[in-house]
Structure formats: structure tokens, C-alpha cells
Amino acid sequence: MSAERNMTSVKVWDPIVRFGHWLLVAGFFTNYIMEDEVMTLHVWIGYTLLAIVLFRVLWGFVGTEHARFGDFVRSPAAVVYYLRNLFTGLAKHYLGHNPAGGIMILLLIACMIALAFSGLVLYAVEENAGPLAGWVVEAGEGVSGALWAADEHFWEETHEVLVNVMLGLVIIHVLGVVVSSRLHRENLVRAMVTGRKPLKD
Question: Could you tell me if 20 and 192 are in contact, meaning their C-beta atoms sit under 8 angstroms apart?
């Protein structure tokens, strides 16, 4: 059984990519549901998510073959071409991320970093805590030594908007996984668990 599996599938996603992916899913939805009702837990989950994303950026340059940005980041024209063919059922199969998946990864990473930054600003302004404490203060306070006076309302709204943008990106990502899985007759969710994808001629 295992010999047959080895003949028909190949290892694509390394444990770091897979483990990081599911930690991000669990952490984001935990914080989304909990919001800031338990601030300490909310903050530490946020720190963890930021650390995972920053490490994923590093891994995108020094990691395994299909984890590297050079393997899946393609031009906008390539993304448009792939999507056009996807809706006609003629899209090329990629062993790693397809062009649309590649651009989605970049958007998710950028949004998560922006979300974490807005959270850090809020934490500094509201609680005078976190790595930005003392550097960022509420506008009008004029605390000595502060580098930036931030408007609390603006950053609250920004943080909330970014949460909803992230949720929207996740929904689009899931829909893309479903469509791509059906088109190419492969289970991408299982692949992100096992790390293996079927070989295609």
C-alpha cells in the first residue's frame, strides 16, 4: 500500500509549511471569535501569528523547493492567464502553488502583517503595553519620548477592517482550493495535511 502511494504521489509541502498553515488558521479564527474579550490571550495569539508569518517570509527564501517564493510567485499576466483558463477547465496543473494560489499567499501574508501591526499600535495606545509602548501614544497626550501620536479611533477601525479583509481573503482562498481540487482531481486540503500530492502526466 505504501509502495503504491510512493509511486503515485510525491512530497510537496514540508512540515514547516503545513504546520505553520494550520496554526495560522487556528490562531486567526480563535482571535476572530474571541475578539479582545480576553486581552492577554488575544495579544499572545497575535504575537504568535506574527512570528509564524515572519518566519514564513524567511522560509520563502531559504526553505524547500515548493515553499520558496521563486517557485510560485508569478507575473500578474500569468495569474490572469491561469484564472482565465481555470474557468474554461483548461488550467495547467502545478505541483506546487498555481499562480492564483501564489498571489493569494502574498495577499494573506501582507494582510496578516498589517493586521498584527495595527493590533500592536492599538495595544500601545490603549494599554501602554507591547513592543510599541512608550513609542506610540494617543494623539493629544504629548507624552515625552513618544515618536508617534496615533488616533485610537482610526486604528480601531483599521484593525477591524483588516480583520474583515483577512476573512474575505480566507473565503476566496477556500473557494479557490475547492475549484482547483475539483478541476485537477486532487485533494488540496489532504495535501496540506500529508504534504503529498498526486503525480500528473
Answer: no
Q: Is 72 exposed, middle or buried (0-12, 13-18, 19+ CB in 10 A)?
A: buried
Decide if 98 contacts 180 (C-beta within 8 A).
yes
Task: Say which amino acid occupies 173.
Answer: H
48-60 pLDDT, tens per residue?
999 999 999 999 9
- Rounded to a whole number of angstroms, the distance between the first and last alpha carbons of the chain is 21
Residue 158, SS3 per DSSP = helix
Q: Of 193, 178, 195, give the one whose Cα is nearest residue 86.
A: 178
Distances 77 to 8, 81, 83, 84, 168 between C-alpha atoms, Å: 32, 6, 10, 11, 23
Model's pTM, two decimal places? 0.89
pLDDT tens digits, one per residue of 148-186? 778 889 999 999 999 999 999 999 999 999 999 988 888
Q: For the chain, what's the residue count?
A: 201
What is the rounded CA–CA span in Å between residue 173 and residue 183?
15
